[in-house]
Amino acid sequence: MGRTMSGLYAVTPDTADTSALLAGVEAALAGGARALQYRNKAADAALRRRQGAALLELCRRYHAPLIINDHLDLALALDADGAHIGADDGPIAPARTMLGADKILGASCYRRFETALAAQQAGADYVAFGSFFPSNVKPDAVRAPLSLLTEAKQRLTVPVVAIGGITPDNAPQLIAAGADAVAVISALFGAPDVLAAARRFAGLFDGPPS
Fold first, then answer.
1. 108 catalytic, yes or no?
2. Would you call 19 a catalytic residue per the annotation?
């Protein structure tokens, strides 16, 4: 499944309002998001479990994979489609073993190609680089150069995901540089019309990058 990671990769915002979260995610999926990452840094375990279960049911209806950020235990408990781990979440190889071969495993590689290469070799199904632009979610994140996407696309065999401050206006340059997918939080779920925003992002992948 990971090798088909492409297009708009929706990443949830931190919120305790499950009804609002589900409404926003459904709009994103209806608008063309190809995958969903559940990421909630502020929730406790019980809320993550409730929200994750509800999101999984929603993703099933839209035939989109649900990837759980950070929490391998939750991904396993829900039988979600996969997990995404960062530098502080432990090594890739044990996570690959825990998840099994049929689940998607993604890895944050920030601005380091060698980290991505090692992640691929350890069993990651896709790698994510960023932040490419100023981000409200991670304002202090170090910027990654566009050339990193091009190098990764040329030298890796797994899909390449770009993240960090991505909007419909700046996404085309990431796609042109080699990004297979763009992971978006604020410009999607913070938009006045989530459905319209998702459609605009999804439309960037319908033809040649502009």
1. yes
2. no
